[in-house]
Amino acid sequence: MLKIAIYGKGGIGKSTTISNLSAAFSKLGYRVMQIGCDPKADSTRTLLGGKRIPTVLDQMRTGEDVSLKDLIYQGDGGVFCIESGGPIPGRGCAGKGIVTAFEKLESLNAFEEYKPDIVFYDVLGDVVCGGFAMPLRSGYSDLVFIVTSGELMSLYAAENISKAVKELSEYSDLELAGMIVNRRNIEKEMENIESFAKETGVSIFSEIPRSDFVQKAEDQGKTVVFSYPYSSQAEVYMGIAKKVAKLWLDGKREL
Fold it and tell me: Which residues contact 207 (CB under 8 A, 6 or more apart)?
């Protein structure tokens, strides 16, 4: 089982990227689990036809016994979808909500029961502290990718995330795999990113071009990979999945 945490500035396109990668891996024949770690609980929406699912915290608030069937829903490609959720607005800490959700999944042996080959954590990454750092701790993740663009605030967030990962990797086998560049087509975008990569030592793993297919697919409540499987954009996501599989899932590189 390969566990990947994907961080990045809010609004940078993490959920779009992760959902399309989950779809791509499912098409390659892997069992995939995607865990949304944002209080908005919309990470898995495009894998589920645009529908939202009950979150772990919502189910726990009912006061009834909760089983994995109450928490895990299958989306396109058989992807196992989970949303951790967050506290009632104005009450509690969103980061603590992630911790509570993770502990619940662990107590129910979610990984052992569903046996995914790959697990994605979709994490709100503007702040890497408290519960938002949970996917980086206690062996939850093997790899971290940072989704970024060439915009300054996005790169600022990427720098903070990279520092947190490097700090935590000193005490674990956690590895910062690199940046996935979600292009915004701003002026000197790749020049800014390449300069950032040189200064921080964070490599560029792959690039995702800006495409109208993304919005068209999301308007249908779908991923590009399933809605427009023969598009050049779907091929980009498939290419990233194949690259990850070659490096980490197919025995080319030991974790």
Answer: 180, 181, 183, 190
Over residues 147-196, the pLDDT tens digits come to 999 999 999 999 989 988 888 887 778 899 999 999 999 999 999 999 99
Name the nearest CA neighbour of 104 among 124, 84, 80, 130.
Answer: 84
Q: Supply the angle between the helices 212-219 and 232-244 in degrees, to the nearest 10.
A: 90
- Is 2-248 a domain of CATH 2.120.10.30? no
Distance CA 203, CA 214 (A): 25
**Maximum Cα–Cα distance across the chain:** 54
CA 69 – CA 54 distance, rounded (Å):
11
pTM tops 0.85: yes
Where in the sequence numbering do the catalytic residues fall?
9, 14, 40, 126
